[in-house]
Amino acid sequence: MRQLALPFFLAVSLIVSPAFANDEEVSADSAPAGGEAPAAEAAGDEDLIEDDLDELPSLDDLLGKKAADTAVTWASTGPAPERGYPWIEHHGYFRLRLDGYHRAFLGTQVHADGKTVNSSAFRPPLSENVVNTSRGEKWIGGANMRFRYAPTLHVAPALSITAEFDILDNLMLGSTPDYDPDRPDAPFAALSRSQVSPSGTRFGGKDAVAVKQAYATWAPFRPSDSKKFLLEFSGGRMARHWGLGILENDGQDLDADFGTYVDRINLLTRLWGIYLELGYGWVANGPSSINAVQPFGEPYDLTNKDDVTDIALAIFQKPRTDAERQDRFTKLVVRNKPAFDWGVYLVYRSQKMDIADSPDGSFYPAQFGKYDTLVLEQRDAWMVTPDLWFKVEWKPSAKEHVRFELEAVGVFGKINHVPRYSWKSVEQSWNRDGEAPLDIKSFGFAFEGEYTWGPVSTGLHAGLATGTDAPYFGYRDQSNFLFDQSITKQRSFFFNPDYKVDQLLYRHAIGTVTNSFYLKPFVQYDLFEGDKDALAGRIDIMYARALNAAATPGQNANLGAELDVKLFYEKKGVFFAGFEWGTLFPLKGMNITATYGCGPGADGNPVACHEAKKAKWSMSVRGRFGVMF
Protein backbone atom coordinates (compact mmCIF):
# COMPACT_ATOMS: atom_id res chain seq x y z
CA MET A 1 0.00 0.00 0.00
CA ARG A 2 2.91 2.31 0.81
CA GLN A 3 4.44 1.54 -2.58
CA LEU A 4 1.25 2.82 -4.27
CA ALA A 5 0.97 5.88 -2.03
CA LEU A 6 4.33 7.30 -3.06
CA PRO A 7 3.73 7.67 -6.81
CA PHE A 8 0.17 8.90 -6.12
CA PHE A 9 1.32 11.76 -3.91
CA LEU A 10 4.14 12.64 -6.31
CA ALA A 11 1.67 12.88 -9.19
CA VAL A 12 -0.69 15.06 -7.16
CA SER A 13 2.15 17.34 -6.12
CA LEU A 14 3.24 17.88 -9.73
CA ILE A 15 -0.26 18.60 -10.98
CA VAL A 16 -1.79 20.55 -8.11
CA SER A 17 1.11 22.50 -6.61
CA PRO A 18 3.24 24.69 -8.93
CA ALA A 19 5.82 24.89 -6.16
CA PHE A 20 6.54 21.16 -6.48
CA ALA A 21 6.88 21.44 -10.25
CA ASN A 22 9.71 23.92 -9.74
CA ASP A 23 11.77 21.45 -7.62
CA GLU A 24 15.02 20.18 -9.13
CA GLU A 25 14.74 17.01 -11.23
CA VAL A 26 17.32 14.21 -11.32
CA SER A 27 19.08 14.10 -14.66
CA ALA A 28 20.16 10.99 -16.54
CA ASP A 29 23.80 11.97 -16.06
CA SER A 30 23.49 11.55 -12.29
CA ALA A 31 22.90 7.77 -12.57
CA PRO A 32 25.85 5.38 -12.68
CA ALA A 33 26.88 3.90 -16.00
CA GLY A 34 24.98 0.75 -16.89
CA GLY A 35 21.86 1.96 -15.13
CA GLU A 36 22.19 -0.14 -12.00
CA ALA A 37 22.35 1.22 -8.46
CA PRO A 38 25.13 0.11 -6.11
CA ALA A 39 24.22 -2.62 -3.71
CA ALA A 40 24.61 -0.40 -0.65
CA GLU A 41 22.26 2.17 -2.08
CA ALA A 42 19.79 -0.49 -3.11
CA ALA A 43 19.86 -1.92 0.33
CA GLY A 44 18.94 1.42 1.83
CA ASP A 45 16.20 2.33 -0.65
CA GLU A 46 13.50 0.74 1.40
CA ASP A 47 14.46 2.72 4.51
CA LEU A 48 14.69 5.96 2.51
CA ILE A 49 11.24 5.42 1.03
CA GLU A 50 9.78 4.94 4.46
CA ASP A 51 11.47 8.15 5.69
CA ASP A 52 10.20 10.09 2.61
CA LEU A 53 6.68 8.88 3.18
CA ASP A 54 6.82 10.16 6.73
CA GLU A 55 7.95 13.64 5.48
CA LEU A 56 5.44 13.99 2.56
CA PRO A 57 2.66 16.55 3.08
CA SER A 58 -0.89 15.38 3.37
CA LEU A 59 -3.54 15.94 0.67
CA ASP A 60 -5.19 18.63 2.83
CA ASP A 61 -1.86 20.49 3.03
CA LEU A 62 -1.46 20.37 -0.74
CA LEU A 63 -5.00 21.59 -1.43
CA GLY A 64 -4.62 24.38 1.15
CA LYS A 65 -1.40 25.58 -0.46
CA LYS A 66 -3.05 25.61 -3.89
CA ALA A 67 -5.97 27.67 -2.56
CA ALA A 68 -3.56 30.20 -1.06
CA ASP A 69 -1.63 30.47 -4.33
CA THR A 70 -4.87 30.93 -6.24
CA ALA A 71 -5.97 33.72 -3.87
CA VAL A 72 -2.66 35.53 -4.40
CA THR A 73 -3.05 35.22 -8.16
CA TRP A 74 -6.60 36.67 -8.07
CA ALA A 75 -5.54 39.51 -5.76
CA SER A 76 -2.61 40.59 -7.94
CA THR A 77 -3.18 43.71 -10.09
CA GLY A 78 -1.95 42.33 -13.35
CA PRO A 79 -2.05 44.27 -16.61
CA ALA A 80 -4.84 46.87 -16.85
CA PRO A 81 -7.55 45.77 -19.28
CA GLU A 82 -8.26 47.98 -22.27
CA ARG A 83 -11.39 50.12 -21.92
CA GLY A 84 -14.24 48.92 -24.05
CA TYR A 85 -16.38 51.17 -26.24
CA PRO A 86 -18.78 52.82 -25.92
CA TRP A 87 -18.32 54.26 -22.41
CA ILE A 88 -19.67 57.35 -20.67
CA GLU A 89 -17.73 60.07 -18.90
CA HIS A 90 -19.87 61.78 -16.27
CA HIS A 91 -19.63 65.45 -15.27
CA GLY A 92 -21.94 67.99 -13.67
CA TYR A 93 -22.97 69.54 -10.40
CA PHE A 94 -25.82 70.23 -8.04
CA ARG A 95 -26.08 73.69 -6.53
CA LEU A 96 -28.29 75.37 -3.97
CA ARG A 97 -28.26 79.13 -3.44
CA LEU A 98 -29.87 80.98 -0.54
CA ASP A 99 -30.24 84.71 -1.25
CA GLY A 100 -31.34 87.65 0.82
CA TYR A 101 -31.44 91.27 -0.37
CA HIS A 102 -31.98 94.42 1.64
CA ARG A 103 -33.14 97.29 -0.56
CA ALA A 104 -31.35 96.06 -3.70
CA PHE A 105 -33.76 98.30 -5.63
CA LEU A 106 -31.88 101.26 -4.00
CA GLY A 107 -35.09 102.83 -2.68
CA THR A 108 -35.51 105.00 -5.80
CA GLN A 109 -38.86 103.62 -6.93
CA VAL A 110 -41.35 106.22 -8.19
CA HIS A 111 -44.67 106.02 -10.01
CA ALA A 112 -44.78 107.70 -13.42
CA ASP A 113 -47.63 107.51 -15.94
CA GLY A 114 -49.10 104.43 -14.27
CA LYS A 115 -45.88 102.43 -14.04
CA THR A 116 -43.12 101.90 -11.50
CA VAL A 117 -39.74 103.37 -12.39
CA ASN A 118 -36.50 103.07 -10.43
CA SER A 119 -32.78 103.43 -11.06
CA SER A 120 -31.94 99.78 -10.31
CA ALA A 121 -32.70 96.83 -12.56
CA PHE A 122 -33.58 94.89 -9.39
CA ARG A 123 -37.35 95.35 -9.25
CA PRO A 124 -38.91 96.69 -6.04
CA PRO A 125 -41.20 94.35 -4.06
CA LEU A 126 -44.75 94.03 -5.37
CA SER A 127 -45.90 95.84 -2.27
CA GLU A 128 -44.24 98.95 -3.75
CA ASN A 129 -45.91 98.93 -7.17
CA VAL A 130 -48.61 101.29 -8.44
CA VAL A 131 -51.52 99.13 -7.29
CA ASN A 132 -50.33 98.25 -3.79
CA THR A 133 -48.63 101.60 -3.07
CA SER A 134 -45.85 101.75 -0.51
CA ARG A 135 -45.93 99.28 2.39
CA GLY A 136 -42.34 99.67 3.55
CA GLU A 137 -41.02 96.29 2.41
CA LYS A 138 -37.23 96.36 2.08
CA TRP A 139 -36.08 92.75 2.49
CA ILE A 140 -36.49 90.02 -0.15
CA GLY A 141 -35.21 86.48 0.37
CA GLY A 142 -35.45 83.12 -1.33
CA ALA A 143 -33.62 80.05 -2.58
CA ASN A 144 -33.00 78.45 -5.97
CA MET A 145 -31.37 75.29 -7.29
CA ARG A 146 -29.99 73.61 -10.38
CA PHE A 147 -28.82 70.10 -11.24
CA ARG A 148 -26.54 70.08 -14.28
CA TYR A 149 -25.60 66.80 -15.95
CA ALA A 150 -23.00 66.92 -18.73
CA PRO A 151 -22.09 63.43 -19.98
CA THR A 152 -19.69 62.61 -22.80
CA LEU A 153 -20.35 59.37 -24.68
CA HIS A 154 -17.10 57.97 -26.07
CA VAL A 155 -18.21 55.93 -29.07
CA ALA A 156 -14.69 55.13 -30.26
CA PRO A 157 -11.18 56.41 -29.51
CA ALA A 158 -11.67 59.26 -31.99
CA LEU A 159 -15.45 59.75 -31.70
CA SER A 160 -17.49 61.27 -28.88
CA ILE A 161 -20.86 62.92 -28.23
CA THR A 162 -21.26 65.56 -25.52
CA ALA A 163 -24.52 66.82 -24.04
CA GLU A 164 -25.57 69.13 -21.22
CA PHE A 165 -28.87 69.01 -19.35
CA ASP A 166 -30.03 71.49 -16.73
CA ILE A 167 -32.67 69.90 -14.52
CA LEU A 168 -34.86 72.33 -12.56
CA ASP A 169 -32.69 75.13 -13.92
CA ASN A 170 -32.62 78.04 -11.44
CA LEU A 171 -35.86 76.77 -9.96
CA MET A 172 -36.96 78.96 -7.08
CA LEU A 173 -37.88 76.77 -4.14
CA GLY A 174 -41.60 77.08 -3.53
CA SER A 175 -42.32 78.45 -7.02
CA THR A 176 -44.47 75.52 -8.25
CA PRO A 177 -47.11 74.88 -5.56
CA ASP A 178 -49.79 72.32 -6.30
CA TYR A 179 -52.95 74.43 -6.24
CA ASP A 180 -55.48 76.02 -8.57
CA PRO A 181 -58.41 78.37 -7.91
CA ASP A 182 -60.74 75.88 -9.62
CA ARG A 183 -59.75 72.98 -7.35
CA PRO A 184 -61.95 72.25 -4.34
CA ASP A 185 -59.13 70.71 -2.30
CA ALA A 186 -56.51 73.43 -2.88
CA PRO A 187 -57.99 76.67 -4.24
CA PHE A 188 -55.29 78.73 -2.47
CA ALA A 189 -51.53 78.43 -2.19
CA ALA A 190 -51.88 78.05 1.57
CA LEU A 191 -53.66 74.71 0.98
CA SER A 192 -50.99 73.27 -1.35
CA ARG A 193 -49.68 69.90 -0.21
CA SER A 194 -46.92 69.42 -2.76
CA GLN A 195 -44.77 70.92 -5.49
CA VAL A 196 -45.34 70.07 -9.15
CA SER A 197 -42.88 69.84 -11.99
CA PRO A 198 -42.54 73.12 -13.92
CA SER A 199 -43.53 73.19 -17.58
CA GLY A 200 -43.46 75.50 -20.56
CA THR A 201 -47.09 76.47 -20.04
CA ARG A 202 -47.07 77.01 -16.28
CA PHE A 203 -44.94 78.71 -13.65
CA GLY A 204 -43.05 81.15 -15.82
CA GLY A 205 -42.83 79.07 -18.96
CA LYS A 206 -39.68 77.09 -18.08
CA ASP A 207 -39.54 73.35 -18.63
CA ALA A 208 -38.24 71.00 -15.96
CA VAL A 209 -35.33 69.96 -18.19
CA ALA A 210 -33.41 72.30 -20.48
CA VAL A 211 -31.00 70.90 -23.07
CA LYS A 212 -28.10 73.35 -23.34
CA GLN A 213 -25.55 71.40 -25.40
CA ALA A 214 -25.50 68.50 -27.86
CA TYR A 215 -22.60 68.08 -30.25
CA ALA A 216 -20.30 65.45 -31.72
CA THR A 217 -16.50 65.47 -31.97
CA TRP A 218 -14.31 63.50 -34.37
CA ALA A 219 -10.55 63.61 -33.80
CA PRO A 220 -8.81 61.49 -36.46
CA PHE A 221 -5.40 62.82 -35.36
CA ARG A 222 -5.00 63.19 -31.60
CA PRO A 223 -1.38 62.41 -30.64
CA SER A 224 -0.31 61.61 -27.11
CA ASP A 225 2.39 64.30 -27.04
CA SER A 226 2.03 68.10 -27.01
CA LYS A 227 3.70 69.03 -30.30
CA LYS A 228 2.57 66.74 -33.10
CA PHE A 229 -0.14 67.49 -35.63
CA LEU A 230 -3.69 67.45 -34.21
CA LEU A 231 -6.95 67.54 -36.15
CA GLU A 232 -10.45 67.72 -34.69
CA PHE A 233 -13.93 68.31 -36.13
CA SER A 234 -17.00 69.22 -34.07
CA GLY A 235 -20.55 70.22 -34.85
CA GLY A 236 -23.84 70.90 -33.09
CA ARG A 237 -24.92 73.19 -30.28
CA MET A 238 -21.98 73.84 -27.99
CA ALA A 239 -20.84 76.20 -25.26
CA ARG A 240 -18.13 78.71 -26.17
CA HIS A 241 -15.55 80.33 -23.92
CA TRP A 242 -12.76 82.68 -24.85
CA GLY A 243 -10.17 84.33 -22.65
CA LEU A 244 -11.52 85.77 -19.42
CA GLY A 245 -15.08 85.39 -20.69
CA ILE A 246 -16.19 89.01 -21.18
CA LEU A 247 -17.34 88.26 -24.76
CA GLU A 248 -18.02 84.53 -24.88
CA ASN A 249 -18.52 82.75 -21.57
CA ASP A 250 -19.47 79.08 -21.39
CA GLY A 251 -21.30 79.54 -18.08
CA GLN A 252 -19.58 76.54 -16.46
CA ASP A 253 -18.83 78.34 -13.20
CA LEU A 254 -20.79 77.06 -10.21
CA ASP A 255 -22.42 80.50 -9.82
CA ALA A 256 -23.12 81.12 -13.53
CA ASP A 257 -26.63 81.81 -14.85
CA PHE A 258 -26.34 82.48 -18.59
CA GLY A 259 -23.72 80.92 -20.88
CA THR A 260 -22.77 81.40 -24.52
CA TYR A 261 -24.18 78.61 -26.68
CA VAL A 262 -23.62 78.57 -30.43
CA ASP A 263 -24.89 76.45 -33.31
CA ARG A 264 -21.66 75.90 -35.18
CA ILE A 265 -19.37 73.52 -37.04
CA ASN A 266 -15.68 73.78 -36.14
CA LEU A 267 -12.37 72.68 -37.56
CA LEU A 268 -9.52 72.67 -35.03
CA THR A 269 -5.91 71.88 -35.81
CA ARG A 270 -2.54 72.21 -34.08
CA LEU A 271 0.73 72.95 -35.83
CA TRP A 272 4.02 73.38 -33.93
CA GLY A 273 2.12 73.81 -30.66
CA ILE A 274 -0.17 76.59 -31.99
CA TYR A 275 -3.90 76.02 -32.49
CA LEU A 276 -5.92 77.22 -35.45
CA GLU A 277 -9.72 77.08 -35.30
CA LEU A 278 -12.18 77.88 -38.08
CA GLY A 279 -15.93 77.89 -37.47
CA TYR A 280 -19.18 78.58 -39.29
CA GLY A 281 -22.20 79.41 -37.16
CA TRP A 282 -25.93 79.81 -37.59
CA VAL A 283 -26.96 82.73 -35.34
CA ALA A 284 -30.55 82.98 -36.58
CA ASN A 285 -32.36 81.40 -39.52
CA GLY A 286 -35.79 82.97 -39.09
CA PRO A 287 -39.09 81.18 -39.69
CA SER A 288 -39.01 77.48 -40.51
CA SER A 289 -41.44 74.82 -41.71
CA ILE A 290 -42.20 73.74 -38.13
CA ASN A 291 -45.79 74.45 -37.12
CA ALA A 292 -48.31 73.34 -34.53
CA VAL A 293 -50.35 71.37 -37.08
CA GLN A 294 -47.44 69.09 -38.07
CA PRO A 295 -44.59 69.23 -35.55
CA PHE A 296 -42.84 66.12 -36.90
CA GLY A 297 -40.62 65.52 -39.89
CA GLU A 298 -37.37 67.18 -40.91
CA PRO A 299 -37.75 70.98 -40.78
CA TYR A 300 -36.34 73.38 -43.35
CA ASP A 301 -35.69 77.10 -43.48
CA LEU A 302 -38.37 79.14 -45.26
CA THR A 303 -35.76 81.54 -46.67
CA ASN A 304 -32.04 82.15 -46.48
CA LYS A 305 -32.47 85.88 -47.08
CA ASP A 306 -33.05 86.58 -43.39
CA ASP A 307 -30.30 84.35 -42.01
CA VAL A 308 -27.71 85.71 -39.58
CA THR A 309 -24.42 83.82 -39.94
CA ASP A 310 -21.01 83.88 -38.27
CA ILE A 311 -17.58 83.08 -39.61
CA ALA A 312 -15.06 82.73 -36.79
CA LEU A 313 -11.28 82.39 -36.83
CA ALA A 314 -9.13 81.81 -33.75
CA ILE A 315 -5.36 81.44 -33.39
CA PHE A 316 -4.19 80.64 -29.88
CA GLN A 317 -1.76 78.81 -27.67
CA LYS A 318 -2.83 77.27 -24.36
CA PRO A 319 -2.90 73.79 -22.77
CA ARG A 320 -5.84 71.71 -24.04
CA THR A 321 -4.67 68.09 -23.91
CA ASP A 322 -3.37 66.01 -20.99
CA ALA A 323 0.14 66.08 -22.44
CA GLU A 324 0.08 69.88 -22.72
CA ARG A 325 -1.19 70.24 -19.17
CA GLN A 326 1.59 67.97 -17.94
CA ASP A 327 4.17 70.08 -19.79
CA ARG A 328 2.69 73.21 -18.25
CA PHE A 329 2.92 71.72 -14.75
CA THR A 330 6.56 70.78 -15.33
CA LYS A 331 7.39 74.25 -16.59
CA LEU A 332 5.61 76.11 -13.79
CA VAL A 333 6.14 73.91 -10.75
CA VAL A 334 9.26 71.86 -11.48
CA ARG A 335 11.35 74.30 -13.49
CA ASN A 336 9.83 77.51 -12.03
CA LYS A 337 9.67 79.15 -15.45
CA PRO A 338 6.99 81.66 -16.54
CA ALA A 339 4.33 80.36 -18.93
CA PHE A 340 2.54 82.40 -21.57
CA ASP A 341 -0.86 81.86 -23.18
CA TRP A 342 -2.29 84.07 -25.89
CA GLY A 343 -4.99 84.21 -28.52
CA VAL A 344 -6.46 86.21 -31.40
CA TYR A 345 -10.16 85.72 -32.12
CA LEU A 346 -12.06 87.26 -35.04
CA VAL A 347 -15.78 86.94 -35.81
CA TYR A 348 -17.57 88.27 -38.89
CA ARG A 349 -21.38 88.44 -38.76
CA SER A 350 -23.80 89.44 -41.51
CA GLN A 351 -27.50 89.63 -42.38
CA LYS A 352 -29.13 90.85 -45.59
CA MET A 353 -32.84 90.88 -44.78
CA ASP A 354 -35.02 90.26 -41.74
CA ILE A 355 -38.59 89.49 -40.79
CA ALA A 356 -40.49 92.64 -39.84
CA ASP A 357 -41.06 92.48 -36.09
CA SER A 358 -43.18 94.55 -33.78
CA PRO A 359 -42.27 95.96 -30.35
CA ASP A 360 -45.52 94.59 -28.94
CA GLY A 361 -43.86 91.25 -28.31
CA SER A 362 -44.97 89.27 -31.38
CA PHE A 363 -42.14 87.34 -32.96
CA TYR A 364 -41.97 85.01 -35.95
CA PRO A 365 -45.69 84.52 -36.63
CA ALA A 366 -44.78 81.77 -39.13
CA GLN A 367 -44.15 79.48 -36.20
CA PHE A 368 -47.92 79.51 -35.70
CA GLY A 369 -48.81 78.87 -39.32
CA LYS A 370 -49.23 82.47 -40.58
CA TYR A 371 -47.02 81.98 -43.62
CA ASP A 372 -48.69 84.64 -45.79
CA THR A 373 -48.40 87.35 -43.14
CA LEU A 374 -44.59 87.40 -43.15
CA VAL A 375 -42.94 90.54 -44.44
CA LEU A 376 -39.27 90.61 -45.41
CA GLU A 377 -37.52 93.93 -44.93
CA GLN A 378 -34.03 95.13 -45.73
CA ARG A 379 -31.46 95.03 -42.94
CA ASP A 380 -27.99 95.04 -44.58
CA ALA A 381 -26.13 94.44 -41.34
CA TRP A 382 -22.52 93.46 -40.76
CA MET A 383 -20.22 93.34 -37.74
CA VAL A 384 -16.58 92.48 -37.13
CA THR A 385 -15.52 91.52 -33.60
CA PRO A 386 -11.79 91.20 -32.87
CA ASP A 387 -10.77 89.85 -29.46
CA LEU A 388 -7.23 89.74 -28.06
CA TRP A 389 -6.31 87.66 -25.01
CA PHE A 390 -3.04 87.31 -23.11
CA LYS A 391 -2.09 85.46 -19.94
CA VAL A 392 1.15 84.96 -18.03
CA GLU A 393 1.70 82.67 -15.04
CA TRP A 394 4.81 82.23 -12.92
CA LYS A 395 5.72 80.31 -9.77
CA PRO A 396 9.07 81.73 -8.62
CA SER A 397 9.01 79.37 -5.63
CA ALA A 398 6.85 76.71 -4.04
CA LYS A 399 4.91 79.33 -2.06
CA GLU A 400 4.59 82.02 -4.75
CA HIS A 401 2.23 82.31 -7.69
CA VAL A 402 1.84 85.23 -10.09
CA ARG A 403 -0.89 85.64 -12.71
CA PHE A 404 -1.65 88.49 -15.11
CA GLU A 405 -4.47 88.16 -17.62
CA LEU A 406 -5.99 90.62 -20.08
CA GLU A 407 -8.81 90.45 -22.63
CA ALA A 408 -9.70 93.32 -24.99
CA VAL A 409 -12.68 93.28 -27.38
CA GLY A 410 -13.95 95.62 -30.08
CA VAL A 411 -17.20 95.51 -32.05
CA PHE A 412 -17.32 97.40 -35.35
CA GLY A 413 -20.11 97.37 -37.90
CA LYS A 414 -23.25 98.93 -39.31
CA ILE A 415 -26.95 98.15 -39.59
CA ASN A 416 -28.19 100.18 -42.54
CA HIS A 417 -31.91 99.75 -41.90
CA VAL A 418 -33.15 99.93 -38.29
CA PRO A 419 -36.93 100.35 -37.92
CA ARG A 420 -38.12 103.07 -35.53
CA TYR A 421 -41.42 103.26 -33.66
CA SER A 422 -43.39 105.98 -31.90
CA TRP A 423 -46.14 105.65 -29.30
CA LYS A 424 -49.61 106.74 -30.41
CA SER A 425 -51.57 107.57 -27.28
CA VAL A 426 -54.93 107.57 -29.10
CA GLU A 427 -54.49 104.08 -30.54
CA GLN A 428 -52.49 102.97 -27.46
CA SER A 429 -49.98 101.22 -29.69
CA TRP A 430 -46.52 101.51 -31.21
CA ASN A 431 -46.62 102.62 -34.84
CA ARG A 432 -43.85 102.30 -37.42
CA ASP A 433 -42.15 105.66 -37.85
CA GLY A 434 -39.56 105.21 -40.57
CA GLU A 435 -36.07 103.82 -40.21
CA ALA A 436 -32.52 105.02 -39.61
CA PRO A 437 -29.03 103.53 -39.89
CA LEU A 438 -27.04 102.49 -36.85
CA ASP A 439 -23.26 102.79 -36.75
CA ILE A 440 -21.61 100.38 -34.30
CA LYS A 441 -18.29 101.05 -32.59
CA SER A 442 -17.79 99.72 -29.06
CA PHE A 443 -14.93 98.49 -26.94
CA GLY A 444 -14.30 96.70 -23.66
CA PHE A 445 -11.47 95.15 -21.72
CA ALA A 446 -10.87 93.33 -18.44
CA PHE A 447 -7.66 92.85 -16.48
CA GLU A 448 -6.89 90.48 -13.61
CA GLY A 449 -3.63 90.60 -11.67
CA GLU A 450 -2.98 88.32 -8.69
CA TYR A 451 -0.03 87.50 -6.46
CA THR A 452 0.04 84.66 -3.91
CA TRP A 453 2.57 84.16 -1.12
CA GLY A 454 1.75 81.12 0.95
CA PRO A 455 -1.71 81.56 2.48
CA VAL A 456 -2.10 85.20 1.38
CA SER A 457 -3.33 86.30 -2.06
CA THR A 458 -3.79 89.87 -3.20
CA GLY A 459 -4.43 91.55 -6.50
CA LEU A 460 -6.29 94.04 -8.64
CA HIS A 461 -9.14 93.48 -11.08
CA ALA A 462 -10.13 96.26 -13.46
CA GLY A 463 -12.34 96.68 -16.49
CA LEU A 464 -13.90 99.15 -18.90
CA ALA A 465 -16.81 99.13 -21.31
CA THR A 466 -17.80 102.01 -23.57
CA GLY A 467 -21.31 103.48 -23.51
CA THR A 468 -23.81 105.56 -25.42
CA ASP A 469 -24.91 108.98 -24.16
CA ALA A 470 -28.58 107.97 -24.09
CA PRO A 471 -30.97 106.87 -21.32
CA TYR A 472 -31.44 103.24 -20.31
CA PHE A 473 -27.74 102.38 -20.33
CA GLY A 474 -28.12 99.21 -18.22
CA TYR A 475 -28.08 95.66 -19.51
CA ARG A 476 -31.67 95.10 -18.36
CA ASP A 477 -33.05 98.47 -19.34
CA GLN A 478 -35.48 99.45 -22.06
CA SER A 479 -34.19 99.45 -25.65
CA ASN A 480 -33.17 102.80 -27.10
CA PHE A 481 -32.76 102.00 -30.75
CA LEU A 482 -36.30 101.18 -31.82
CA PHE A 483 -37.85 104.20 -30.12
CA ASP A 484 -35.42 107.09 -30.58
CA GLN A 485 -34.64 108.25 -34.11
CA SER A 486 -31.89 110.54 -32.87
CA ILE A 487 -29.76 107.54 -31.89
CA THR A 488 -27.69 106.64 -34.93
CA LYS A 489 -24.57 105.44 -33.11
CA GLN A 490 -24.17 102.39 -30.91
CA ARG A 491 -21.21 102.83 -28.59
CA SER A 492 -22.28 100.56 -25.74
CA PHE A 493 -20.29 97.42 -25.04
CA PHE A 494 -21.78 94.90 -22.62
CA PHE A 495 -19.70 92.37 -20.69
CA ASN A 496 -21.07 88.85 -20.72
CA PRO A 497 -23.19 88.77 -17.53
CA ASP A 498 -21.53 85.50 -16.45
CA TYR A 499 -18.29 87.43 -15.96
CA LYS A 500 -19.04 88.26 -12.33
CA VAL A 501 -17.49 91.44 -10.94
CA ASP A 502 -19.41 92.06 -7.71
CA GLN A 503 -22.53 91.14 -5.76
CA LEU A 504 -24.84 94.12 -6.25
CA LEU A 505 -23.97 97.08 -8.49
CA TYR A 506 -23.12 95.35 -11.76
CA ARG A 507 -24.76 92.02 -11.03
CA HIS A 508 -28.21 93.35 -10.11
CA ALA A 509 -28.53 97.15 -10.27
CA ILE A 510 -27.08 97.54 -13.80
CA GLY A 511 -26.98 93.95 -15.05
CA THR A 512 -23.38 93.83 -16.24
CA VAL A 513 -20.42 96.10 -16.95
CA THR A 514 -21.29 98.78 -19.52
CA ASN A 515 -20.67 102.53 -19.98
CA SER A 516 -18.23 102.52 -17.08
CA PHE A 517 -14.92 101.43 -15.65
CA TYR A 518 -14.19 99.79 -12.31
CA LEU A 519 -11.24 99.16 -10.02
CA LYS A 520 -11.36 96.28 -7.53
CA PRO A 521 -8.45 95.44 -5.22
CA PHE A 522 -8.81 92.34 -3.05
CA VAL A 523 -7.04 90.28 -0.40
CA GLN A 524 -7.60 86.61 0.49
CA TYR A 525 -6.29 84.33 3.24
CA ASP A 526 -6.38 80.54 2.81
CA LEU A 527 -5.69 78.32 5.82
CA PHE A 528 -4.90 75.28 3.66
CA GLU A 529 -2.42 76.81 1.17
CA GLY A 530 -3.21 74.08 -1.35
CA ASP A 531 -4.46 73.79 -4.91
CA LYS A 532 -6.98 71.05 -4.10
CA ASP A 533 -8.60 72.39 -0.92
CA ALA A 534 -9.37 75.85 0.41
CA LEU A 535 -10.71 77.22 3.67
CA ALA A 536 -10.50 80.92 3.02
CA GLY A 537 -11.81 84.41 3.55
CA ARG A 538 -11.74 87.20 0.97
CA ILE A 539 -12.44 90.94 0.94
CA ASP A 540 -13.10 92.94 -2.27
CA ILE A 541 -13.47 96.72 -2.49
CA MET A 542 -14.76 98.15 -5.78
CA TYR A 543 -15.29 101.63 -7.18
CA ALA A 544 -17.23 102.22 -10.42
CA ARG A 545 -17.57 105.33 -12.55
CA ALA A 546 -19.60 105.96 -15.72
CA LEU A 547 -17.97 107.09 -18.95
CA ASN A 548 -21.06 108.98 -20.17
CA ALA A 549 -22.81 110.64 -17.26
CA ALA A 550 -25.77 111.66 -19.46
CA ALA A 551 -26.88 108.03 -19.69
CA THR A 552 -27.06 107.42 -15.93
CA PRO A 553 -30.32 107.79 -13.98
CA GLY A 554 -28.76 110.49 -11.80
CA GLN A 555 -26.93 112.35 -14.59
CA ASN A 556 -23.65 111.90 -12.71
CA ALA A 557 -20.55 109.83 -13.44
CA ASN A 558 -20.04 108.43 -9.93
CA LEU A 559 -21.92 105.12 -9.77
CA GLY A 560 -20.95 103.62 -6.44
CA ALA A 561 -18.56 101.81 -4.13
CA GLU A 562 -19.06 98.25 -2.93
CA LEU A 563 -17.60 96.07 -0.18
CA ASP A 564 -17.86 92.29 -0.64
CA VAL A 565 -16.82 89.67 1.93
CA LYS A 566 -16.60 85.92 1.28
CA LEU A 567 -15.99 82.95 3.57
CA PHE A 568 -15.83 79.55 1.91
CA TYR A 569 -14.62 75.96 1.97
CA GLU A 570 -13.84 74.18 -1.28
CA LYS A 571 -12.62 70.73 -2.22
CA LYS A 572 -11.80 71.37 -5.84
CA GLY A 573 -14.07 69.53 -8.23
CA VAL A 574 -16.05 67.87 -5.43
CA PHE A 575 -17.67 70.24 -2.92
CA PHE A 576 -18.17 73.95 -2.24
CA ALA A 577 -19.84 75.78 0.64
CA GLY A 578 -19.65 79.53 1.01
CA PHE A 579 -21.15 82.61 2.63
CA GLU A 580 -21.10 86.00 0.88
CA TRP A 581 -22.00 89.41 2.21
CA GLY A 582 -22.05 92.52 0.04
CA THR A 583 -22.82 96.17 0.77
CA LEU A 584 -23.33 98.77 -1.95
CA PHE A 585 -22.97 102.48 -1.30
CA PRO A 586 -24.55 104.07 -4.39
CA LEU A 587 -23.35 107.49 -5.45
CA LYS A 588 -25.08 110.27 -7.39
CA GLY A 589 -25.08 108.40 -10.68
CA MET A 590 -27.61 105.91 -9.26
CA ASN A 591 -29.99 108.61 -8.01
CA ILE A 592 -33.15 109.15 -10.03
CA THR A 593 -33.94 112.54 -11.53
CA ALA A 594 -37.45 113.95 -11.94
CA THR A 595 -37.34 113.34 -15.71
CA TYR A 596 -35.93 109.78 -15.74
CA GLY A 597 -38.31 107.46 -17.57
CA CYS A 598 -40.61 110.32 -18.60
CA GLY A 599 -41.84 111.06 -22.10
CA PRO A 600 -40.65 113.97 -24.26
CA GLY A 601 -42.36 117.34 -24.41
CA ALA A 602 -43.03 119.53 -27.43
CA ASP A 603 -39.35 120.42 -27.69
CA GLY A 604 -38.33 116.77 -27.66
CA ASN A 605 -36.80 116.88 -24.18
CA PRO A 606 -38.15 114.77 -21.29
CA VAL A 607 -40.73 116.45 -19.06
CA ALA A 608 -40.66 115.86 -15.30
CA CYS A 609 -43.34 113.35 -14.31
CA HIS A 610 -42.33 112.26 -10.79
CA GLU A 611 -40.23 113.31 -7.84
CA ALA A 612 -36.45 113.00 -7.71
CA LYS A 613 -35.01 110.48 -5.26
CA LYS A 614 -31.62 109.74 -3.76
CA ALA A 615 -30.31 106.17 -3.93
CA LYS A 616 -29.83 104.44 -0.57
CA TRP A 617 -27.36 101.80 0.52
CA SER A 618 -28.22 98.16 -0.11
CA MET A 619 -27.01 94.79 1.10
CA SER A 620 -26.98 91.17 -0.04
CA VAL A 621 -26.44 87.99 1.98
CA ARG A 622 -25.90 84.75 0.05
CA GLY A 623 -25.21 81.14 0.90
CA ARG A 624 -23.90 78.85 -1.84
CA PHE A 625 -23.58 75.08 -1.76
CA GLY A 626 -22.37 72.86 -4.57
CA VAL A 627 -21.56 69.19 -5.18
CA MET A 628 -19.47 68.63 -8.30
CA PHE A 629 -18.43 65.50 -10.19
Describe this structure in words.
This protein is mainly beta and 629 residues long. Among the domains are: 50 residues; 96 residues, no CATH class; 151 residues, no CATH class. It has an 18-stranded antiparallel barrel. The longest helix is centred in the first third of the chain and has 17 residues. It is built from six helices and 23 strands. The radius of gyration is 36 Å and the shape is globular. α1 packs parallel to α4. The two termini are 69 Å apart.
Task: Assign a percent range to the helix content.
Answer: 10-25%
The ordered H/E elements are HHHHEEEEEEEEEEEEHEEEEEEHEEEEE
Shape: globular
Alpha-carbon distance between the two ends: 69 Å
Helix count, DSSP H or I runs of 4 or more residues:
6
- Measured by DSSP, the beta-strand proportion falls in 35-45%
Pick out the low-confidence regions: 1-46, 362-369
How many strand units?
Answer: 23
Mean pLDDT across the residues is 86
Task: Characterize the biggest β-sheet.
Answer: 18 strands, antiparallel, barrel
Class inferred from helices and paired strands: mainly beta
Radius of gyration: 36 Å
